[in-house]
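Researcher: Sequence recovery benchmark, item below. Answer with residues only.
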């Protein structure tokens, strides 16, 4: 069963690609930066556990929240199904596909046939638009091939994998409602909400506080790492190429602000956009310094990266403060 006239979303980030594909099936077409911004996706986290050889650096909000935010702003019905039964999990998906409804799926990328570099990551998203007796037909990011397929057995394993960021065979679908939305108002609300959350992190390893913490921690990481080359070069690769859109999602948020300014003509958004142009370049500098630290195994590059991260923390706090202030002012005017 293959859904007719299905139009895949061409994206760099897995969740916006999966969700964008479901939206396009409903006739809703937005750019990837706009989807990321509507989802309030910008954040930062350094995540370190005793079982981890090297800390994880992430640049977006928690998995699952991005799509929740997007559908809320667009007044769509968002149905999520989870189950610990692999049989029921397949029935949940098959039922929708048979009705001509594409399905968003969260799974572990390790088991997907088309991934050439295998690594465990249970926070990966795809859209499914068909199946046959052997394979599931999926939409993944551009860098993973766009329209791809994987065996039904491996799909089952990927969906049922346990571990960090995993869910119980999670799948989701959208449905339109009678409620309309004002895109300009929703963009402004999304900007305000994202800025508020960013500026008020619940713990020290999130948002601008987390970036500042990372600026100090990377020096410790370099000194204790058993594989400096592998650790720093892998982190640099993840920041630039692992579905982040480059610069740890800052390119996407920068372009979202540009698109928002073009639509809203709010000067403060233009100012914040200018800051994020520079911020994105600074993140690119950090990834290059991480690569050099891995290649040369020289502390000098880590110290430089530490200084850049401290500057990024300052600039991101400034940009998000500008956005929070103007967002709240405009929202109050609209009430």
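Model:
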């Amino acid at each position: 069963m293959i859904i007719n006239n299905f139009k895949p979303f061409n994206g760099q980030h897995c969740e916006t690609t999966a969700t964008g594909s479901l939206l396009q099936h409903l006739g809703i077409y937005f750019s990837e930066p706009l989807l990321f911004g509507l989802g309030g996706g910008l954040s930062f986290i350094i995540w370190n556990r005793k079982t981890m050889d090297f800390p994880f650096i992430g640049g977006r909000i928690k998995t699952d929240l991005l799509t929740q935010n997007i559908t809320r702003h667009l007044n769509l019905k968002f149905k999520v199904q989870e189950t610990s039964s692999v049989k029921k999990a397949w029935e949940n998906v098959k039922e929708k596909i048979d009705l001509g409804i594409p399905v968003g799926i969260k799974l572990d990328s390790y088991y997907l046939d088309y991934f050439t570099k295998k690594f465990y990551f249970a926070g990966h998203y795809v859209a499914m638009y068909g199946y046959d007796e052997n394979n599931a037909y999926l939409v993944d990011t551009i860098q993973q091939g766009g329209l791809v397929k994987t065996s039904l057995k491996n799909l089952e394993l990927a969906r049922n994998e346990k571990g960090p960021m995993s869910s119980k065979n999670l799948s989701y679908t959208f449905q339109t409602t009678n409620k309309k939305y004002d895109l300009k108002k929703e963009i402004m609300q999304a900007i305000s909400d994202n800025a508020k959350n960013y500026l008020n992190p619940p713990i020290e390893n999130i948002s601008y506080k987390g970036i500042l913490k990372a600026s100090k921690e990377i020096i410790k990481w370099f000194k204790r790492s058993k594989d400096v080359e592998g650790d720093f070069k892998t982190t640099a690769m993840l920041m630039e190429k692992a579905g982040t859109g480059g610069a740890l999602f800052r390119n996407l948020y920068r372009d979202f602000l540009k698109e928002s300014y073009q639509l809203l003509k709010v000067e403060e958004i233009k100012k914040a956009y200018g800051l994020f142009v520079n911020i994105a370049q600074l993140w690119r500098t950090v990834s290059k310094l991480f690569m050099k630290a891995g290649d040369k195994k020289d502390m000098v590059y880590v110290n430089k990266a530490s200084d850049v991260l401290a500057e990024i923390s300052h600039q991101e706090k400034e940009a998000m403060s500008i956005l929070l202030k103007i967002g709240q002012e405009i929202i109050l005017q609209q009430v």
